[in-house]
Amino acid sequence: MDKIRFGGDYNPEQWPEDVWDQDMALFEEASVDTLTVNVFAWATLQPDEHTYDFAVLDRILEKLAAAGKTVCLATSTAAHPAWMARAYPDVTRVDFDGRRHVFGQRHNSCPNSPAYRRFSAELARRIAERYGRADNPASGIVVAWHVNNEYGGTCYCEHCAAAFRVWLRARYGSLSALNEAWNTAFWSHTFYAWDEVVPPNALSEHGGGPDVTAFQGITLDYLRFNSDSLLRNFIDEKSAIREFSPDLPVTTNFMGMYRPLDYFRWAPHLDFVSWDNYPPDMQSHARMALTHDLMRGLKGGRPFWLMEQTPSQTACRAFNPVKRPGVMRLWSYQAVAHGADAVLFFQMRQSRGASEKEHGAVITHGGRSDTRVFREVAGLGEELEALAGEIVGARTYAKVALVFDWDSWWAVEISDGPSRHVSYQQTLIAYYRALYERNVAVDVVPTGADLAGYDVVVAPLLHVIQGDLAARVEAFVEGGGTFVTSFLSGRVDESDNAFGMDAPGPLARVLGIRIDETDALAPEDLNAVVFDGGAVRFAANLVFDLLQPGTAEVVGVYESDFYAGTAAVTRNVVVGEGGSGDAWYVGTNLDAGGLGWLFDRVLGDRGLLNAYSGLPGVEAVTRHRDDVAYLFLLNHGDVAADVVAETDGVSLLTRTPVRAGEHLTLAPKDVLILRSRTC
Ligand SMILES: [Zn+2]
Question: 422 in a domain, yes or no?
């Protein structure tokens, strides 16, 4: 489909059948073309262990086929039926505190439960067999498979313990290698039999809570293991689907920056990435942009689907503001600007009961089309229909990469010392925001990415250095690149052990510094970093590396405390065969102004600032397809913005020509898509 897909989750098995025709008419009115169905219907599809009943799903798909819609067909395995929990009590999870759960909620299955693995794969197999075959009338409308839903959570049961030991054997091969990796001579932890290893939870290593572990190596491996366990559930189902549907793409909906799952390890197993965007507040533009870029980065820049967003409000928080007029449209285009080829909602008709009855929906309980939300949705649907033939498949080209690393996220936050207040996510957002506010395109990449194509690589809190990462960073800088990293980088290996050398370990040489001490203070205890010989100063807190510059020049110094006047921010120039590069180290948690100052300098040095850098409230993002560039201008602000067009082109949403140098007025929350030729 050469059109941005539009629609969303549709769960008609949850409401009376006599409104289905009304739904179809409203879909038509809103230009909806794609529905995600069968996400939570396991109990309907399989009323007992031996019976499968597809009658309701048959009728739903027949209705959608008759209405000319396409379908993303889910496998319904994110919430097991009550009979399964009764017949197989070990299908439920054991929580962090060691309590075996009984039936309830969703995302409630132990990923290593033999019953769950068998029943979930069998359900996926039967669905694929029924609807993936060409002789089923519905098969023609299914365009993608949607496995499970928002995989997540952790289990600590006996099945998981046994599977953890199998996972460890595969990783380490021998107990001596495991003991070495985990540094088990500490606190007399040496293991002499695999069965002595138990999951790290509140009953074992985590007396102080989920983020407070006595043994980082064990916890880090359990985080990896848990992510892999859930991934294996996905692979179980995908393999079952592939028996009957060899070609249709398979996905599962991710949750953006979701700590428990290393999506870079998952992404190769998905045919395309999709994700659900539920920002924590109305001021999350930079965070959402980062998350879209991360989702695009999971598969090396390929477009993704926005699988869910609410058309108005969520219901899961203490208070749930509605999206103000224009915001749903603005955020939808933001997703498209960053690489989405589908804009889908949760959900199409509002739930009658349970925890989502107040969750926003395109069609409310009253079934009306004259609500503000429906009108805005229908307006967007009409616009996207008019954009058919444009944008889909277009790519993003960035000269700046932001390194995102789940291992570092986990390791830096489970570390005992120097600070429990360091947030990987908030730090990444802060660095990204400085780039975002300068409207510089960013690729979010894993540690294993090829860095050669970038001018600037930004890697805050690159805590774990494994494999040849340090050598590749050195080669990048020697080749003329600019590398920027921060406090607590280069501190541990893949097993969370310190390097037998000065911090920042394998990164020390390229950074040209040595760290002798790291001070860590309460968040409210501020210091400052002074740049340009005292001309500017910016607040800093949390962590303060006491740096010994070797070959690095001192760019900023601490303002106070016993280390006043010593290096806080450094830059090491490296001359290599490929040119002259530089490596920056930021030894403390600089405030937004400080990071802005830093990136004005870094991006300015590289000639990466542009006409839209620093335009308040306006986000500028470009996608490219063949010789066409689509520039999205998004006004997140509350006042109109004046933007000067850089090139001749066409304003796609109004179909009006635009001349280079022309002043364009962008109303608050409004969007402008400028199409131009690149050659
Ligand atoms: Zn388990």
Answer: yes
- Which are the catalytic amino acids? 150, 308
- Report DSSP state, residue 267: G
The Cβ of residue 581 has, within 10 Å, a number of other Cβ atoms equal to 22
Domain housing 378: 5-84+120-153+229-386
- Assign 142 a pLDDT band (cuts: 50, 70, 90): very high
The number of folded domains in the chain is: 3
Q: Which residues surround ligand 1, an ion (CB under 5 A)?
A: 110, 112, 155, 157, 159-160
Q: What is the pLDDT of residues 556-572, one digit of tens each?
A: 999 999 999 999 999 99
Question: Ligand 1 centroid to 250 CA: how many Å?
Answer: 25
Give the pTM: 0.98
**Is it true that the peptide bond before 418 is cis, omega within 30 degrees of 0?**
yes
From 386, 415, 437, the end of a domain falls on 386
Distance 188 CA to ligand 1 centre (A): 27
**Residue 250 belongs to domain with CATH number:** 3.20.20.80
Q: How many A from CA of 199 to the centre of ligand 1?
A: 10
| Tens digit of each residue's pLDDT (9 = 90 or more) over 464-521 | 999 999 999 999 999 999 999 999 999 999 999 999 999 999 999 999 999 999 999 9
**Do residues 381 and 470 both lie within one domain?**
no
**Token digits of residue 321:** 């503001």
**For residues 671 and 342, what is the distance between their CA atoms, to the nearest angstrom?**
17
pLDDT over 80 at 543, yes or no: yes
Regarding whether 452 and 321 lie in a shared domain, the answer is no
Cβ distance 438 to 609 under 8 Å? yes
Q: Does the residue 376 lie in any domain?
A: yes
CB 385 within 8 A of CB 399: no
Residues 378, 405 within the same domain = no
Gap from CA of 439 to ligand 1 centroid (Å): 45
* Residue 98 placed within a domain: no
Distance 116 CA to ligand 1 centre (A): 10
Q: Residue 578: its pLDDT value, please?
A: 77
